[in-house]
Amino acid sequence: MGAAAVASSGPGLRCALNPALNQHKKGARLSLAAKSQQRCAVTCGRLLLRPNARVCTAASASASTVMDSGAGDSGVRRKRLAVFVSGGGSNFRSIHEAALGGKVNGDVVALVTDKPGCGGAEYARCNGMPVVVFPKSKSAPEGVSTDELLNVLRDLKVDFVLLAGYLKLIPGELVKAFPRSMLNIHPSLLPAFGGKGYYGLKVHKAVIASGARYSGPTVHFVDEQFDTGKTLAQRVVPVLANDTPEQLAARVLHEEHQVYVEAVAALCEDRIVWRDDGVPLIRSQTNPNAYT
Ligand code: GRF
Questions:
Q1: 89 C-alpha to center of ligand 1: Å?
Q2: What residues does the Formyl transferase N-terminal domain cover (predicted)?
């Protein structure tokens, strides 16, 4: 399946282009209904474009048109990122904004979702990114198979896959196709409170019930199970005496947005160094002899 077919996957486009993107709208199949425009304005309200950012429309996205691949400030080729989302997509949005703002030496070239109506998918459409529905299911019959997804990711020349609130287990073939090149973010200090069933507020409820005094997000490489790949980065937040799961979730999510961007920035600048025992470290941007 080619990228053009992918771009038309999922529900109909429900938003108008961000005004900043209108110069690229020729040929795009976008609804200009006033209601949709309002939705898009809300969804895309925080988008900031780099002055020279090249952003294609959903209808015209393809491997050759999606983004430039020149070297960034680091002198390293800009990387091509696919982000997988099942929900609101706030981490996806922070990574996308960091890419547009120059903090991340890469470009999000596709959004993959099992929930074509989710907030993350809507944000992607509003910002002219191809949305790929995966996997195929009763509620998402337009979805693609693992082989088709692999072909799409290859066509788009994706360097790295970033899971950001994607709830399905990633099939082994996909994990194998992106060795040391697939990250996930989890809202607890792994290996605690991870694995099947630990997602969303369930994680924070379990942390509070355990009496743990600290929590925080973990960015880790993806293997074939839930939340067991090697840890790359973590942040710590306190668990307060009267915390509700929602309050703790908000404190952790704030840190997620920082730590995921920093980890992805390191990945895109080739600053991940693998220790002999298989643990990944991040080399400091400013001091090549310092690692975290
Ligand atoms: C985050 O808490 C992340 O750690 C977990 O799923 C949530 C996604 O949130 N994997 P969002 O969709 O990025 O807002």
A1: 7
A2: 79-264
**179-292 adopts what CATH topology?**
Rossmann fold (3.40.50)
Query: Hey, which residues does 112 pair with through a beta bridge?
Result: 84, 132
Higher pLDDT, 62 or 82: 82
Domain extent listing, the chain:
1-161, 179-292
Mutual angle of helices 245-268 and 201-210, in 10-degree steps:
110
Ligand 1 site residues, Cβ closer than 6 angstroms: 85, 87-92, 164-165, 185-187, 217, 253, 256
Q: Which fold has domain 1-161?
A: Rossmann fold (3.40.50)
DSSP string, the chain: --HHHHHT-SSPP-SPPPGGGGGG-TT------HHHHHHHHHHTTT----TT-----GGG--TTTS----B-TTSSBPEEEEEEESS--HHHHHHHHHHHHTSSSEEEEEEEES-TTSHHHHHHHHTT--EEE-S--SS-TT---HHHHHHHHHHTT--EEEESS--SPPPHHHHHHSTT-EEEEESS-TTTT-STT--THHHHHHHHHHT-SEE--EEEE--SSTT-SPEEEE--EEPPTT--HHHHHHHHHHHHHHHHHHHHHHHHTT-EEE-TTS-EEEBPSS-TT-B-
| 199-225 per-position pLDDT tens digit | 999 999 999 999 999 999 999 999 999
pLDDT digits (tens, 9 = 90+) for 221-264: 999 999 999 999 999 999 999 999 999 999 999 999 999 999 99
Return the residue whose CA atom lies nearest to atom 6 of ligand 1: 165
